[in-house]
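User: Sequence for Sensor protein below. Tokens please.
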Amino acid sequence: MNRSIARRLALMFALVALSVFTLVGTGLFVVLRTQLEHHLRESLDDRVQIARIIVYHAVTPEKWRMCREKLTDMTPHDGSTVYSVSSTDPYFHYGQPVEGTAVKNWPGGYARVKPAGGGQDMLTSTVTIPSYDARPPLQLQVAASYSPNIRTMRVFGSALAALSALGSLAVLLLSYSVTRLGLAPLTRLTRDASAVSPNNRSQRLNTASLPLELNDLANSFNGALERLDGAYGRLESFNADVAHELRTPVTILIGQTEVALTRNRSVDDLRHTLQSNLEEYERMRAIINDMLFLARADQGERATGLVEVSLAAEVAHTLEFLEIPLEEARVHATLRGDAQTRVNRSLFGRACTNLLMNAIQHCEPGAAISVTIARHDDQVRVAVANPGEPIEPGVLEHLFDRFYRAEVSRTNSRENHGLGLAIVKAIAEMHRGTVSAHSANGINTFSFSIAASQIDTALPSMRSATGNSAHVAAEATGYSSLVKGKSA
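Assistant: Structure tokens for Sensor protein:
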């Protein structure tokens, strides 16, 4: 069950207000009770002083009779104040002292007494009056009832509780309204976010009038939308490129098969048709394998099976493997530099093969290809340079994208489906490296780097990239087919 933020905030504000009201009310209640008791004690002191003066001068029977009358007149009918006098002489006696359980005693003869016969507690003060003439020593007790204090505290406590409840309710209602008003930008943000759809990917959240607390959230959401829009666009482009690349061999297969079926063919004609179809099947398989390899690389897989090797030896092995394509293109390659590091030999060889085949295909006969291995900080970079036409900066930044071709109409576009450099980039990233391309002074340089120190982790292995040398030479297949076609 989803809960409203406004209701939750309003409820929390109300609980906080109730807690504050309770603390303040408790403090006021304690202060008021203390003050009422203090005032009751002061009032009792005044009555004790008056009664003491009256009793002190009652030294004769006549004066004692008048004293008793005055004490009677001073005693309220509701019994809130009680006077009593006791002595060794029964004649000098007045009233009944308050007797019961002493709840609390204070210095100066004050005591809070719970009467034995029941009723409200009484605050008593007992003083001794010395003898005077014929009057013996007297014990004067004045008692005042706690009833007014108790009634006042009861009324005050009830009023305080009611006001606290009403105040908390008012805070609840007001805070709910204020919270809804304060969350209005969030509501508008939610409405704008709901309007984003695949058909309206360019829409972004308006952050101009948002409060500071929501501005970072909106900017983060807009950034996520930008990344999703870019990924969606690349996916659309990728799907279109895949369909285009697969449509060509499928169209060729259908066309050749239809031609073969138009009339009776000899065994040699059928063999030639099947051989041509087999080449197209190989091309489709290469496209599918490369797409699966890139898909696994996109999932964040790292290279495994790392071994300490000499990169110069690995590149030399790749150059030896590409000896025939180099001779047929009438170009030669040189190798400079070396470094020791841990790599997946199959993946490293595949990346070198792709870069060298790319250089071979864009070299004029008689040109020289230069392979350089150099270490820069914590990276080892392998660079393949070849002379060629200058490449525009806007093209350089896309050369490692999938299915990207700087020249769509070049003669060998049918044999190269535009995934070779993308695979180099994926292999570099699997070794925690990067790729780069430069074009200057008639020399085009394509390079990739790998981390100088690799850790062989237990991540899932790349089965399609750890096979035999046939996988390393996957990109060379197209070139070999092209050579065969020209020779034929």
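The chain is about 55% helix and 15% strand.
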